[in-house]
Amino acid sequence: MSPTNQPIDKLLQQLSEPARQAMSRAYVPYSKFHVGAALLDEHGRIHQGCNVENGAYSPGNCAERTALFRAIADGCEPRSFQAILVVGDTPGPISPCGVCRQVLSELCRPDMPVVMTNLKGDQAVMTVAELLPGAFSLEESRMEDKEDER
Question: Among residues 51, 74, 99, 127, which is most buried (max CB within 10 A)?
């Protein structure tokens, strides 16, 4: 699938409100740090995600991964997504954490736009590949193993 042909302004208009709605549903009793995400699939459907914390900390999940996992559970094919928008109450545009960047690199196309915003309307846009250059890939490591066997 080719990258979305939609201009960033159209993506902002389409995804900002669903991301903010998701942000309002975040379960963050410990950090009080609400984050929301809205993921656009190839059929124009929007999958929302919010961060969900847990008292044990590591079982928590970020908004970006929640949206991606929800979309996969809803039947979307990996790498079929058009864009994701992330919003948080931060001084500048919120950026996905390292774990989310790795998940994005596996489930999304390298050229998919990641729109990072905040509640003030600041924005930054990068592709998945720009967010995580040299991303780890089991597929690539398996190919290297096969080459080594020769």
Answer: 51
